[in-house]
User: Fold this.
Amino acid sequence: MRCLVTGGSGFIGRHVARRFHEGGHEVLVLDTRWTPGDPFPGEATSVTDERRLRELFAGWRPDVVAHLAGMADARAVLAEPVAAMDANVTGTAAVLAAAAASGVSRVVIAGSCWVYNAMPVNAVDEDEPFLPSGAGHFYTTTMIAKELLARDFARLHGLESTVLRYSPVYGPGMWPGLVVSAFLRAAAAGGPLTVFGDGEERRAFLHVHDLAEAFYRATAPVAAGQVYNLEGPEIITTGELAHKVSELFGGVPVEHREEPTRRGELVYSQRFVSTYKVRRDLGWAPEIGIDEGLRTQLAAMREEVAAG
Assistant:
């Protein structure tokens, strides 16, 4: 099987590409940051370049596409909404159009748990409709648009797709803006760890290795046309995460601060997110808990320091 990974030079994309490669499949990476030194062959191309996308798809003929390219930093999206719409919405439309034209059998789309903010209930499953009023953040709007585009291409062009709505991801290669990375780096420097607000925001942190496995399994026939909720094995607050990291470093200080640029971000509140469907259909469940994930990440950081 041939798998094309858009955004395959990024944090999550690299792990997804590696998982398909380990499964014995041929991998091609498409990413503006791709270089000849990357682990997998590819091309430095933007997903908004529709003409080039169609040429690549027609020439290489992928069987499946893992679509992860786009703007994933919510604060960058807030600052540059037009660029975000271009990357996340126009880019997704261009990928789906190229896939439909070249006979791709499945597109697995990187969605987000942020869409839960556009749902009126606290018990969220994959059939819950979006609120017409939206959810108060440009990033959420782009994620909803990606799901709607997938539905439209299925109805109008018969293109099979699968959407993975996943919770915040961490693990090897994570970018500095992610809270787990920010806490670890701050703790390694002696602190303090900065928690925005009261620290009661709840998150189900998902390890990137578990997410890559979900992308791999989402190519199964049963996943065609489906949306799946993915979460880490436990829900903790950002305050609890800060204290876990602090303890790993012998108790470095933790401080709280207000940050206006974080307005409109994901709020779990007391929501229950059902992951029953992905367990039933794909036999997927997260295996790496936050404590194990943090210990592994800390060990990797220390190895890097020791290596110079």
Remarks:
- Residues 2-170+207-231+273-287 form a domain with the Rossmann fold fold (CATH 3.40.50.720).
- The longest helix spans residues 81-102.
- The mean pLDDT is 92.
- The chain has ten helices and 15 strands.
